[in-house]
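dumping this here before i forget
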Amino acid sequence: MANRPPNTTNLFFGLAFFSLSLVSLAVCLTGCGGHGGYSNESLFPQDVSTVCIEMFDNRSFRRDVEYTLSDALVKRVAAQTPYKIVSDRNRADSVISGQLIRVDESILTLEREIGRPLEQEVVLQAVVNWKNLQTGRLMINNQRVVATASYSEFLGQDFTYASAVAANKLARKIVELMENKW
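structure:
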């Protein structure tokens, strides 16, 4: 039998396959876990399972907005977090409390001829606390949260409508504060 030259095509494909295997192995070992990337862990702290949401204090001259905010927060926490809402503070793992420190109304646009407001805005500002009752740790400590909503009487809207929209936005922001820090 005569000497055959080595088959360079098979050698090339063998080296390419080996290189591709090494790259795939490196990608699999680094993965998406660790300190960066994706995780399937909960966004919320796992050391509590029940939350008592106290009625927010109202430091403004506008009444009943604190009821709207507290109700919106209860609904948001129940719908968007893994926590169970309890009404008795003694049976809760944690408690959310706060103060509604600002309820303002301002004019955004005026009708030129008679100076009547076309569009107005409601601004709600609250200070929020979330305390773990088992450890005494403040998970949210005097955090200020602001939300706004606009309304127009020409669209059949009023202050009550806009304050409810702003309260829902404020509740959403409070639930976002409850998430673990990245």
